[in-house]
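User: Sequence recovery, please. Input:
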């Protein structure tokens, strides 16, 4: 056995066309048949059909005399999905009409079983057909472009089992096939096969506008079915086992036995509703087919859409304003079947017979009052034109616009100029503008041309009273309608008083009364009120009124005095005077603080110089006295007497003090004359005794010790020690009691603590 790849491809493609369950069983069956007949499938096998004439669609129409056990194979060409063909046939005896795609044709030619939906195109297959017939077939869209073959069969095939025509005689056949160019608005056009006691949906759902004609053509190849039109609700009820009583009765086409035509106009109650075309092959209703045999009928459904232009606006008013942009729409025009394209709308706005705008929308304004008309025309895809005219009443229904370019009230004084500008507009035209003051026309203009601005200048003189006044701008359009805008003017004295020249800074003496007087003027006020403020902002602030006031200041320093001048309108001005208050004594001697400080410093310098001279003189005198004393014999220090020793070593004695550590130590070795003079200036003058005993003695002792330190000399006589002081270098004597060999004592000259010892 040889299994051609194209045979396998036929099975594989059939399995890919949406029949998974049937594919499996059919594949097994086909393989089984092929195995049983393998002995007959080879080039010289008698099971291969060879007595089959060839033809193609370009040779049609054609006539054939089919011998017994022969066929005609007609090549329909490569057909694209959704393309529709029309077939006409006439025979004088029974034949089989079979349609195959190219990948299934070999199954037929190899005498294999082809009575399967995956092999032949079942909806366009008619077995044992005799007579005249016409049907339409639409190429299925479950595959790409494919070559198709129509077979007119007069064979008795091995696996027929008595099905279909079995040949036996010569048959005369006439056949034609041609492509159908669908008409506009064709919804469906194809053969529908329905089994006994069953139904099928020929087309749906679809929606249409009220007034549209649904045209149904029916051509029967076998059986006598009924054609119904149902809504979706009716279809669901019928499909679930309900009777055909639930249908649109006026659209019935009962007992279709040959060719029938029904135009049904859709009423308003079915507008926009989902509709379905049903092929019924069940018993009933009365007058319909019995549904006992299979049915095959070509159903062609086309629409004749209604063309009814409808103009709609957002505003339903009868009169439109001049210059108002009006929006029109044609979208309410019936177009559920897309019978009008977007470019199929046109508008004529001036009734001149020419279209001015295109599209389903229009925004337009009429510039002048008029009884205008608007014409909407629509053209269908078939070239049919329909029009609708809408009358339009255009009038000036709105007043002009007037606006003054001032916000709020205007404050003005007498004889001050006021300049006001305003803008205006109107939808048709402005006749005049006017300016009024307190209701009296002061300015008007009738020659406006294309202007949209106006200005007004005015001065309030003494003829007007102070207070509120109204300036009004009024605009009147060509239709006599007017509008106005106004502004409030408050006339008053708006200038503050002005001060005459005055001294803004003065000097006064504490406690001396001083008079203050200033003057101001205001041309718009007869009277001016004066008030004075002293110590402003302080706890002792005080106020006076009057043009002339008197005041005496208690504290020295700079102080601020404010004078307020107020006119009749309540407007005021301030004058500020800075008062420098001086002390009385300084003011009487005509002295200032700097001069006083210089005098005090001068006196102190004189006193310092005199004190220095006096001290210098006393130092010189003391130095001379000491020089004379040193030139004389030095008296030998005698040892202390017994009483002196008791006094020395008794309570509070000098020796006891010497043995006690000192609390403070004073040293005068670093003293000099400059330090003494500075100390004299910082303290009160010393007495004569203090100078003689302390200062001059220290100076002289320091002077004697200045050449250089001399070694301390200790001389022991019995228990009396003589020793030079380590500080002032003067000789002093100390007698130590029995049992005491060393001690500390103070120098009787300078007070320096000295260590003495007989060891």
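Assistant: Recovered sequence (759 residues):
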């Amino acid at each position: 056995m040889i299994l051609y790849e194209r045979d396998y491809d036929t099975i594989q493609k059939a399995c890919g066309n949406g029949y998974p369950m049937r594919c499996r069983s059919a594949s097994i069956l086909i393989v089984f048949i092929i195995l049983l007949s393998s002995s007959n499938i080879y080039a010289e096998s008698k099971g291969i059909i060879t007595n089959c004439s060839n033809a193609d669609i370009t040779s049609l129409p054609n006539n054939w005399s089919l011998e017994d056990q022969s066929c005609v194979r007609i090549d329909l060409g490569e057909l694209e999905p959704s393309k529709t063909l029309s077939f006409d046939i006439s025979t004088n005896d029974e034949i089989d009409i079979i349609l195959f795609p190219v990948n299934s044709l070999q199954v037929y030619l190899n005498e294999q079983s082809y009575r399967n939906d995956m092999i032949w195109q079942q909806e366009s297959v008619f077995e044992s057909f005799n007579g005249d017939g016409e049907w339409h077939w639409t190429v299925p869209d479950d595959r790409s472009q494919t070559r198709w073959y129509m077979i007119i069969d007069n064979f008795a095939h091995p696996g027929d089992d008595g099905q279909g025509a079995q040949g036996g005689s010569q048959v005369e056949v006439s056949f034609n096939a041609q492509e159908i160019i669908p008409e506009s608005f064709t919804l469906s056009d194809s053969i529908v096969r329905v089994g006994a006691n069953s139904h099928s949906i020929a087309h749906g759902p679809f929606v249409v506008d009220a007034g549209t004609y649904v045209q149904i053509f029916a051509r029967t190849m076998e059986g006598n079915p009924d054609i119904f039109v149902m809504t979706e609700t009716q279809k669901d009820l019928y499909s679930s086992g309900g009777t055909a009583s639930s249908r649109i009765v006026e659209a019935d086409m009962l007992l279709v036995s040959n060719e029938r035509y029904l135009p049904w106009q859709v009423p308003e109650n079915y507008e926009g509703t989902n509709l379905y075309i049903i092929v019924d092959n069940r018993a009933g209703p009365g007058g319909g087919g019995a549904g006992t045999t299979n049915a095959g009928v070509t159903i062609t459904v086309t629409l004749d859409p209604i063309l009814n232009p409808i103009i709609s606006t957002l505003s339903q008013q009868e009169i439109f304003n001049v210059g108002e942009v009006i929006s029109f729409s044609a979208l309410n025009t019936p177009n559920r079947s897309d019978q009008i394209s977007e470019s199929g709308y046109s508008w004529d706005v001036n009734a001149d017979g020419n279209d001015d705008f295109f599209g389903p929308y229009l925004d337009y304004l009429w510039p002048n009052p008029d009884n205008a008309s608007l014409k909407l025309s629509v053209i269908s895809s078939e070239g049919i034109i329909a029009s609708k005219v809408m009358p339009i009443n255009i009038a000036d229904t709105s007043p002009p616009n007037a606006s003054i370019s001032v916000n709020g009230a205007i404050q003005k004084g007498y004889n001050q100029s006021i300049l006001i500008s305003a803008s205006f507009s109107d939808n048709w035209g402005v006749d005049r503008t006017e300016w009024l003051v307190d209701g009296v026309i002061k300015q008007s203009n009738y020659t406006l041309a294309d202007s949209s601005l106006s200005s007004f200048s005015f001065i309030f003189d003494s003829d007007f009273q102070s207070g509120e006044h109204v300036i009004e701008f009024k605009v009147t359009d060509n239709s006599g309608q007017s509008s106005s805008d106004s502004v409030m003017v408050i006339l008053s004295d708006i200038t503050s008083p002005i001060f005459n020249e005055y001294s803004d800074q003065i000097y006064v003496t504490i406690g001396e009364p001083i008079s203050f007087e200033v003057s101001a003027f205001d041309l718009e006020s007869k009277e001016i009120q004066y008030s004075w403020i002293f110590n402003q902002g302080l706890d002792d602030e005080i106020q006076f009124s009057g043009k002339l006031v008197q005041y005496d200041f208690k504290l020295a320093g700079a102080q601020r005095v404010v004078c307020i001048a107020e006119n009749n309108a309540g407007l005021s001005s301030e004058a500020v005077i800075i008062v420098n208050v001086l002390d009385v004594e300084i003011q009487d001697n005509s002295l200032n603080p700097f001069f006083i400080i210089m005098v005090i410093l001068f006196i102190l310098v004189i006193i310092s110089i005199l004190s220095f001279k006096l001290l210098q003189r006393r130092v010189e005198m003391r130095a001379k006295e000491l020089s004379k004393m040193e030139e004389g014999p030095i008296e030998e220090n005698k040892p202390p007497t017994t009483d002196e020793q008791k006094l020395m070593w008794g309570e509070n004695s000098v020796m006891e003090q010497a043995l006690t550590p000192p609390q403070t130590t004073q040293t005068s070795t670093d003293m000099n004359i400059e330090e003494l003079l500075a100390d004299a200036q910082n303290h009160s003058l010393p007495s004569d005794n203090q100078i003689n005993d302390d200062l001059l003695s220290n100076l002289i002792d320091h002077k004697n010790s200045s050449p250089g330190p001399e070694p301390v000399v200790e001389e022991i006589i019995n228990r009396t020690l003589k020793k030079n002081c380590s500080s002032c270098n003067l000789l002093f004597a100390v007698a130590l009691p029995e049992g005491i060999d060393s001690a500390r004592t103070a120098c009787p000259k300078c007070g320096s603590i000295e260590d003495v010892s007989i060891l």
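The domain at 186-304 is CATH 2.60.120.680 (Jelly Rolls).
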